[in-house]
Write a structure and sequence with these properties.
With about 300 residues, this protein is an alpha/beta fold. It has two domains: about 5-215, P-loop containing nucleotide triphosphate hydrolases (Rossmann fold, 3-Layer(aba) Sandwich); about 220-305, 2-Layer Sandwich (Hypothetical Protein Yjia, Chain: A,domain 2), CATH 3.30.1220. It is built from ten helices and 15 strands. It has helices at about 15-25, 45-55, 75-85, 105-110, 130-135, 140-145, 160-175, 200-205, 235-240, 295-300; strands spanning about 5-10, 35-40, 60-65, 90-95, 115, 120-125, 150-155, 180, 220-225, 230, 245-255, 260-265, 270-275, 280-285, 305. Helix 1 packs parallel to helix 2. The longest helix is centred in the N-terminal third of the chain and has 14 residues, at about 75-85. The chain is globular and about 60 Å long. The N and C termini lie far apart (about 55 Å). The model is unreliable at about 185-210 (pLDDT under 50).
Length: about 300
């Protein structure tokens, strides 16, 4: 029986993993069926909803509330077995949490008789190469060092090609042993010839015994509001722009001009139009030692509401 290829698209929080997967699914032209496993550190699956609403793709398996390399690894095993038992899928794409590694994934896949592990693609937000908060994060650095291929995302935010190339040179200086793919066509991620080679097992088998890499170092907090609750877009933007303690935020919010996908990474904050949702949802992720901040931030979020519904 032909083995099912398993592709891991890794990357730090907000690097564009979900967007890359949506692009792949939307450009898929054959009739083969793919399965997508999306792991989210938070308890609410924002990324899973985003994939389904933007790709007309239904075979999405979401694992929320922890990283599949640590606290949620048994859920990952269960979902993978469900996918294999259906005998429907010809390819599996896995998006680990932005705080997760790939060692658990590689171990499970390589020991499964019907699966084979493809080279790990790590997405790197090119706009964050000079961001010290991102560059010093141990999870970010470990993800890069354990990848087989590095692909830069959000290049459209830096239209000057000279600036792009200078940033890439800086990245190569910081990570000299990485395999950088300077091809910006996201649709080719799974089709480039060199991705059909064997995986460097030294890269994908690293231990999470290092406490700096545990997902327990981070906490997630989420809030839900009635769908008719309206937020002030300007105040909400200012609140997130001025905050340096949150390392990731996402959600759906209803503002005066309609529904928006809320997205905060270490490189910036955006509110982009999206389809209407069943409720407002805001999720933040921050270091566990900053937990006292949550109550203060919750009060500030409520101050951005202009129309309140119970």
């Amino acid at each position: 029986m032909e083995k099912i290829p398993v592709h891991v698209i890794s990357g730090f929080l907000g690097s564009g993993k979900t967007t890359a997967i949506i692009n792949l699914l939307n450009q898929k032209t054959d009739n083969t069926e793919w399965a997508v496993i999306i792991n989210e550190f938070g308890k609410i699956s924002i990324d899973g909803q985003t994939v389904c609403s933007n790709s007309r793709f239904e075979n999405v398996f979401t694992i929320s509330g922890g990283c599949i390399c640590c606290s949620a690894k048994e859920y990952f095993r269960d979902d993978l077995e469900k996918i294999v038992r259906t005998k429907r899928f010809t390819r599996i794409i896995i998006e680990p949490s932005g705080l997760g590694g790939v060692e658990m994934i590689s171990e499970v896949v390589e020991n499964h008789p019907t699966l084979f592990f493809k080279p790990v693609i790590c997405l790197v937000d090119i706009t964050g190469i000079e961001n010290p908060r991102q560059q010093m994060n141990p999870v970010y650095r470990k993800q890069i060092s354990k990848a087989d291929v590095i692909l830069f995302t959000k290049r459209d935010l830096i239209p000057d090609s000279t600036i792009q190339q200078n940033l890439i040179k800086k990245f190569k200086y910081l990570f000299p042993d990485t395999n950088v793919n300077d091809n910006n066509r996201t649709s080719d991620l799974l089709d480039l010839d060199y991705l059909h080679g064997e995986v460097n097992n030294e890269n994908v088998t690293f231990s999470v015994d290092n406490p700096e890499l545990w997902d327990s170092n981070y906490i997630e907090k989420s809030w839900s509001f009635h769908p008719n609750t309206i937020f002030n877009k300007v105040k909400l933007t200012r609140l997130f722009d001025d905050n340096l303690l949150i390392i990731r935020a996402k959600g759906y919010v209803h503002t005066g001009d309609g529904w928006n996908l809320l997205n905060l990474t270490l490189t910036g904050f955006t509110l982009d139009p999206c389809h209407p949702k069943e409720q407002n949802e805001i999720i933040i992720i921050l270091a566990k030692n900053k937990s006292d901040f949550i109550q203060i931030f919750a009060a500030e979020v409520k101050k951005t509401i202009v129309v309140s519904k119970i």
